[in-house]
Design a protein that fits this description.
It is a single chain. The chain has an 8-stranded parallel β-barrel, surrounded by 6 helices. The chain is globular, with a radius of gyration of 17 Å. Helix content is about 45%, strand content about 15%. α6 packs across α7. It has one domain: Aldolase class I (TIM Barrel), CATH 3.20.20. The protein is an alpha/beta fold and about 240 residues long. The structure holds cytidine-5'-monophosphate. Cytidine-5'-monophosphate binds next to β8 and α9.
Length: about 240
């Protein structure tokens, strides 16, 4: 089986790693960012930190020249999504997630117009299997079919990329084409704890499977030496 090639240039290799600041306070996040120093260039802020001062902290990171991925998984009526995305674009964030519903994706693409913000779509949450979709009223569609349908819609609506697990990256790549982004969580450096992640791959495997960026949180923010953890992952990415 031939895997997609995914050339990585030396200059931007640190940007391949997005460090998930899954932490309860800005103080803890700031301390981790300081310890990582120039080894880390790209940070993800999700619900936990966003609703605990994380938006101001995002501004602070951007002011320091770091890139920020706001993992807000937006979904609302079109006007609300469009205006919310416009605010995120003004903040200077690099990536923002939305749920992959057509109205929402269309509104998000309109809201980011004229900015450098990239919209990433979450097709089907990885915690949902076919039974969960049935329970939510989606039958008869499998999670795999819904991922494919929504990835195709994301591509057609001009969304910049898809968040998916590494084992799905090859299929998603075939649906969205070579120019859109694949961003992949569920990464574990060899020898670290899986935690609640079920389908894990190493950083090098994630890149080889077609991911443009990897999201890693606990193996870095819980490490005794977060900077060393980041450097080891970036080295592994360089070897992909
Ligand atoms: O600690 P860990 O490296 O498992 O964190 C992965 C990050 O990616 C978390 O912020 C998590 O919310 C996010 N994520 C995920 N699986 C998805 C989508 C997002 O783990 N399917």
């Amino acid at each position: 089986m031939s895997l997609p090639t995914n050339p990585v240039s030396e200059g931007d290799i640190r940007d391949k790693l997005i460090i998930g600041l899954d932490l309860p306070s800005v103080e803890e996040a700031r301390s981790i960012v300081e310890r990582i120093g120039d080894a880390g260039t790209f940070y993800k802020i999700g619900y936990q930190l966003a609703y605990a001062g994380g938006f101001e902290f995002a501004r602070e990171l951007i002011g320091q020249g770091k890139k920020v991925f706001l993992d807000l998984k937006l979904h609302d009526i079109g006007n609300t999504v469009e205006e919310g995305v416009r605010s995120v674009a003004r903040l200077g964030a690099t990536f923002l997630t939305v749920h992959a519903y057509p109205q929402t994706m269309r509104a998000a693409v309109a809201g980011k117009a004229g900015s450098s913000l990239k919209i990433l779509a979450v097709t089907v949450l990885t915690s949902y299997d076919d039974n969960d979709l049935t329970e939510a009223g989606y039958a008869p569609v499998s999670a795999a079919d819904l991922v494919a349908r929504r990835a195709g819609q994301a591509r057609d609506l001009g969304v910049d990329g898809i968040v998916c697990a590494a084992p799905e990256a090859e299929r998603v790549r075939s649906l969205i084409g070579p120019d859109r982004l694949i961003v992949t969580p569920g990464i574990r450096p060899a020898g670290t704890e899986a935690g609640d992640q079920k389908r894990i791959v190493t950083p090098a495997e994630g890149i080889r499977l077609g991911a443009n960026h990897l999201v890693v949180a606990r193996p870095i923010v819980k490490a005794a030496d977060p900077r060393a953890a980041v450097e080891a992952i970036v080295r592994d990415i360089a070897n992909a």
